[in-house]
Every structure is written in structure tokens, then in C-alpha cells.
Structures
1.
Amino acid sequence: MDELLEFMAKSLVSNPDAVKVTKKITSSELTLELSVAPEDMGKVIGKRGRIAKALRLIVSAAALDTDKRVNVDII
């Protein structure tokens, strides 16, 4: 799932080399932290957070076969 999030984020931003996804795993939860360049933050979040919400929805849908809850944090 981290590869999926990284691929989607790199296709949105103008500086794809600055995109980094880190994983934090607990017993019941997987947290993916997405970091991008400061000038690309608006492109990843979108108007009223619509793109961020769509990214979270796609990653959550991809994680349905796992038993863990997936959170996407944009930092």
C-alpha cells in the first residue's frame, strides 16, 4: 500500500523526488505518513481536502484484504 500511495503522490506533484512514504505498524493499525515538498502540499491536499480524501479512500480500499486499519497522514 505504501507503493500505491507513493505512486499516486508522485504523479500529482511537480517535485516527485521529494515524495517519501514511511510506515508505522501497530497490532491493529497501519499508519502511512506522506511527506512532500512544501510547494507541492497544496497539490496533494487539494481544494477543501478533496484530493487527500480521495488518496485515503483508495488506500483504504486497497487495504480491505488485510485485517489492519489504514491511516494516511500528510505531513
2.
Amino acid sequence: MSEPLQLYTYFRSSAAYRVRIALNFKGVAHELVPVHLLRDGGQQHAADYVRLNPQHMVPTLRHGDHVLVQSMAILEYLDEAFPDVPLLPATAPGRARVRALAQAVSCDIHPLNNLRVMQYLEHEWEVDGPRREAWMQHWMREGFAALEALLAGSADTGRFCHGDTPSLADCCLVPQLFNAHRFGVDLAPYPTLARIEQACLALEAFDRARPEQQPDAQ
């Protein structure tokens, strides 16, 4: 019998969204454990959860006796633990390219738009809602422009970010584009990103991972 796998998630967390996509794509049976980032002062700050994840963040993956944090580390773990449906290409240059595309989202765009950053801007610096949204939109546009150039200018780009099979890069791109739609970023300047998003969302694994499809979506 395989070890039970639980994903602590929040429906609108783009980091948790990445992992939901990967679990679905790989066909790995799992249980979703909602952690509401706004309710009750933020359930990620509850003592029981902090014992699992001292960073007060989602996602957290529990696989048997192992507890894993940080979405990119979790994605790499899933690729090693469940290798039959890989998230990384077979070649070293391909793997490096996919990791670079994924990190362009996870390291350069997402951290500047994270909930705790927005809460800090609001509560510590008293930045109002319109200016917080302008901040998020700016960093998304900056990142998307670079991604569009990287993808549109490469023969390695296919139906998806790398060739014709979804990869780690697509797992990261689609949730960030969800955020862009949510905060009104015009995607017309990024036709390659929009095309890849549509190809991904046509797949059941991506569709089932959408925030609005989650049990805690309210």
C-alpha cells in the first residue's frame, strides 16, 4: 500500500496551485487539506500548522512520515518520487531551460505579489488598494515581457513552454496568469503566454487544479 499523501493548500495560492497541477498531471492520489490564508486571522498562523510549516505558508506536502515545504522543492520531490510522468525534459539543457522558466515566475514575479508582501504594504506602509494593485501589475508585466521573449524566441517552445508536453514551467506559468486575470493585467502583449495558457487549461489536470474548482473556494 502506498503512503498517504496530503497537500495543505489554499484555493487562491499560486504556489499551492502549482503543486495541485503536478499531482493531477502525474495521477498521484492525494487529499487536499485547506488552510485559509485570511480566515481566523490566517489559518497558516495557527500553532498546529506552524509546527508543520514554520514559514507560515502554503503549500505543505505530507507524504507518509515526510513533511515538505516550498512549492519548487515539492515539485522536484514529486518528479523524483513519481517519475513515470516527468515534469522535466530528458536532456540537461532542456531541464535547465525549464527550471529557468519556472524560476522566472517563482523567484522573480510571485514573491513580489505574495499575500504577506501585500499585507505588509497595507499595514506597515499604509499603501492603499489601488497602489498595491499597481505594484502587482507592474511586476507581473515586467516578468511576462521577459517570459514572452524567452518563449517566443526559442525553437524549444512548442504547444507548451518546452515542446509538446507540459512541464514544471507550465505548472508555474498558469497560476501566475490566473493572478494576472484576477488583478486586471492586459495579456494582449504576451500572445505566446496566452496561447500556452489555453493549451494547458484544455487538459483535465490543469482544469481540475483551478482555484474555482477547489473545495475551499468560496
3.
Amino acid sequence: MEEQLSLLIQLQEIDTKIRAYTLQKNRLPEILAALERKRVTNKENLETVRVGLQTAQKNKRDRDQDLETGIQKVERLKARTSEIKNNKEYQAMLKEIEAAEQENKAIEDDILGLMEKIDAAAAAIGAAEKNSREEDAAIAAEQKEHEAAAAKVAEELTAAEQEKKEMASRVEPSVFSRYQKLLATKAGTAIVEARGESCSGCFMSIPPQVYVNVKKNESIITCPQCNRILYYKG
């Protein structure tokens, strides 16, 4: 096989690795950002449950105060019954006492409901805290794995780039420049195999005589359709 063509094939293999390593490297920040968003969401969920508990506790304190005020009101009303001089006023007072007691009963029901909410929120906090701890540990482990993988990819990328530099030094400048332009404009694939009288880059047919020349692997020949450099494996 013509030496320059052989070097280009090896360069393409290296550049394919470089492209894959670069994609992995570029994906890492988004992967880590997604993990951090997950961690933040877990904390927000936990905070939401905590706020729910605090709200229920405050509401209960408020209703406890309302009940205390209502009890005192009933006591004051009952104390005044001894001062009443006629039956009409006495009946009116009884109705007022009954209404106050009914209101207190409604407050007590509210307090019972709030106590149930507090118990449920406390249990939810326990579960949320446990889940948050487990999620944080899992996220930290996953971050560590990705960071270790990133370090390995960076190492392999540096090695591949150095390998390309050494290989490129053996390619004629004009040929290398042509290869680089194709690499940039053809989605990272500058040289492809010709198979069955077709280009494996664009999958279009290659003219018979061109295909015959490609099979010789004696010169730089490009696909008439996509302009990628062609070679034949045999």
C-alpha cells in the first residue's frame, strides 16, 4: 500500500479515538451538573417536608391559643349566669354559652387534624432524610466514578493527540492539509473504505475504473460524490 495512504488510514483511526474521547470529555460537565441538580432536588424535597411540619406546628399553636381563649370565654359567660335576673336573659346566655362551646369543639377537631398532620409530617421527614442520605451517597459515588473516568479519558486523549502529532509529521504537508479539511467538513471521517464498488462514507457507487484504481492502493483517490479519500482493504 502506498505509504501516504497507509499513514492516512492510521491517522483516521487515531482521529476517531480522539473524537470519541473528546465527546466523552465534553459530556462530563453536563453529567455532573445533572447529578448536582438531583442532589439539589433531594434537598428541596426534604425542605418542603420540613416546612410542612413547621406550618402544621404553628397552626396547632395558633389553634391551641384559640381554644384557650374560647375556654376562658365560656368560663366568663358561665360566671355571669348568677347575675342574670330574668329567664329571657338566662336563655339568651345559655345559647351564647352553647355557641361558644360548639366553636371550641370545632377548634378541638382542628387541633386533632393538625396533630395527625404533624405526626405524618414527622414520619415523612424521617423517610425523606433517610432517602436524602442514601441519594447523596449514591450521587457522590457516581460523581467519583465519572471524575475517575474523566481523568482516564483526559489521559487517553493526550496520548492520542501526541500519537497523531507524531504520525502527522510523517505525512506530506499538502496531503495532511487536505486530510484535515476533510476531517473538519465530513463529520470527523476523512478516509473511508471502498467496498463492493461503493463508498462506505456516502454509500454512493464508485465508477468502475475509479474503483479499479482504488483497489491498487497506490495513490490518493477521492470519492466522486463526497470527496472522501478512498482505500481498499482487499
